[in-house]
Amino acid sequence: MQVAEVDPIRTKRYVDEVFRLVQAKPGVEDILIMNHSGVPVKTSMERQESLQYACLYDNLREKCQAFLSKMEPAQTLTFLRVRTKYHEVLITPDAKITVLVVQNAKDSFINIKG
């Protein structure tokens, strides 16, 4: 088996294509793509904001991974979805990059209080 099949290379072209595809989705407000070290490589955010999100994501990932390890030791985080009344954050980590998307969720949020 070739190394590329096990550990795919994430080229600039690949990152640009992922960014373009995600950006075309309705409701997307911000996109942050980080390398395996958590450093932003492409983003629609301001620089300081992208660095803050990257740092917060790393803390959240560590906590989620610790939780998953307690449930099933062989499991790793593959997708995380966090929703508030107005926003939804979708996080997809892999071996080379992590894609973090902030999207508008208020249009589909159901207000149960009336």
N- to C-terminal separation?
A: 57 Å
For the largest beta-sheet, the strand count, sense and barrel status come to:
5 strands, antiparallel
Question: Could you report the average pLDDT, rounded to the nearest whole number?
Answer: 84
Helices and strands, in order, run as HHEEHEEE
Strand order of the largest sheet: 2-1-5-4-3
Q: Can you characterise this structure?
A:
The chain has 3 helices and 5 strands, in the order ααββαβββ. With 114 residues, the chain is α+β, with helices and mostly antiparallel strands. Strands 2-1-5-4-3 form a 5-stranded antiparallel β-sheet, sandwiched between helices. It starts with a helix and ends in a 10-residue tail after the last strand. Mean pLDDT is 84; it is low at 1-7 and 109-114.
